[in-house]
Structures are given as structure tokens and as C-alpha cells.
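User: Show me sequence and structure for the first protein, then do the same for the second.

Assistant: Starting with the first protein.
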Amino acid sequence: MKPPLPNSYWVRPGRFAAGEYPGDLDPCQAAAKLKMLLCAGINHFIDLTGAGELRPYRDIAEREAPAHGVHVGYERFPIDDAGVPRSREWMARILDAIDAALDDGKTVYVHCWGALAGQVPWSAAGWSATARAAHRPWSRSPGGGRAWRRSAASPDRRRPATSRSMS
């Protein structure tokens, strides 16, 4: 299945996508991106950027949605750009929001600013780990905490890391 935007991917095809910021400095470009997402069936956005960090797109999404026969939902859980969630509880809140939207039959798009090296991989990997562990909180999923602790940026890591990378 083709991803909804060039810098995006399906975590769960047809139900949960992750990727780049769907807005743009140019409102026409933002509307074009949002139309692509809406055409792909996206109707719930989970924004991992901070308030005021980027130009808002929520109003554009809400304006475009009726033409696609949908109502869009929006939630924000800020994570510092290129950072990790500030706590396991914060990560659990993000994963719970993804699960709640999916359970409500929504098609979810999670995004940060750039998508492929920032917050989105954490959320997608965390959700995938929870899905494999029967939707248990990420901190309790088998092996889920090991990647968290390996990151030097993690505030509650339990062993020293030698670099900021995940490798």
C-alpha cells in the first residue's frame, strides 16, 4: 500500500500511518498535503510537535475534511525535536491515544517535524511493540524498555549509553 505522503509510511496499512509534518508555510501546500492524507482515509492526527513550533494546520484539515465526508480529530503530545518522550508515562499516553483512536475506528496519522529521525519512530516502534504484546503499556512490553534505556537522551535510562543513537 502506497504511503499517504512521500515522507510517511504505514505502521498498520490502511489504519495507522506515521510521517512528516502535514502542514507547510504555504497554506496551499498544506492543503494539498492534507488532501492527500484525507484521501488516504486519515481522520485523526496525533501531533508530536510543540505548540508554536510550526505553522498550525488543524484549521485547514477541519476545513478540507467535509469535502471528503469525514470529521477530523486532533491531539498534541509534544516531544522535543529529535528527542525522546520525557517519561514512560508520557509515552504511554501517546500510545493510549493511538489505541483509543484505532479502537474508535479512526485512521491515525502520527507526525513530528521531519518524521524519519525524530519522534515518530519512537511512537511507531512503541505502538508496534504494544501491539505485539497484546496492547500492554510499552514499559511492560517484552524488550520494550531496552531500547528506551539505550538512548542517552532518555531521562530514566538504567545503564550508560555511549552515543545518542539507537545503535
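Switching to the second protein now.
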Amino acid sequence: MKQLFVIFNFLRLWPHVLCYACSKNKKHIAADVAAYKAEYKGGSLLWFLTYNRSFRSLFYHRIGGMSKVIEWLAPGQVTLTIPKTTNVRDGVLLFHSYGTILNAREIGEGCRIVCNITLGDKKGKTPIIGKHVEILPGAVIAGDVTIGDNCVIGPNAVVYKSVPANCVVVGNPAYILKRDGLVVNEKL
């Protein structure tokens, strides 16, 4: 039975490996694989393509137009939306990305994004997410805002104003709970 599974996955995933080999974003995909390996304590490109729908969706975003030819073989996370205009930097981790819309100008390297996140448009402007930002379930970040490096956006936070680096932001409307590790309870 295990041999049948291996043969089936080889047949459905060899086009993915071919697209990876031909992709101009090979370096970015390799960085994503390295980030997922570090998080999951192992794995490989084929392992993540086989078992992780969120990774597959990010992979399809990276390979661009080629994805339309092969996506039916191993669908990504159907409820995850990453527009072509979103610049996703290396090493972004997507966890349980159900109901997630990532419509941003840029998502910085090393970001961790959990389920039911909306990064969206407000009056034609989209957010910029800094490096190593963690966005927790249910958060909404919309409009012409910048989230600084090393921030945590708390569960169900609604952010319509820019956030400085090294902050923890919570609430609706969002406020800064911590700045540089100290409790400050500041308005944005």
C-alpha cells in the first residue's frame, strides 16, 4: 500500500518539481522550504508539496503562470488568496491558512501568518508588513499602513494605522500593548 502511495505522489508531483527547476524564483522557494524545515523539524520540497496545502499555495504564487497548468494535480489551500501584486519575501510561514486574504504591497521575510487573516485594500491602498512579523488569527490590517519589523498583531486586532517596530498590537480599534518589551497601552 505504501508503494502505491509513493508511486501516486511521484506521478502527481513530478510536474511540480519540473516547474521548480524551471522557475526564476527557485531561490525564494528554497528559502521557503528552509523556513518550513526549521519550523517542522525536517521535511523537503516534496514533503511540503505532498502534505501542506498552505505551502503549496505559496509555491504556486512563486512559480506564477505555470501554476495554472499543474495546480489541479495537488490543489493548494482553496480559501487562501494571494494576489499576483503581493510581493511575498523569503521564508514566510503560513499556518492553517483557511479564510486568509494576503492583499498587501509587501510581506516581509520571516513573517508568520495564521488563519483567517485579512491584509486588504482601503481606498485603493494596501499595507506593507515588515520583517519577522507574527499575525495571529482573525486580524485585519487594511489601508496605507506599515507594520514595523518584529511586531506581533494579536488575535482579532483591527489595524488601520501604522505600527512602529518591536510592538505588540491588540484590540479593535488596535492599540499598542507593548513596545520594546515594556507594557505601554498606547493608542496608535
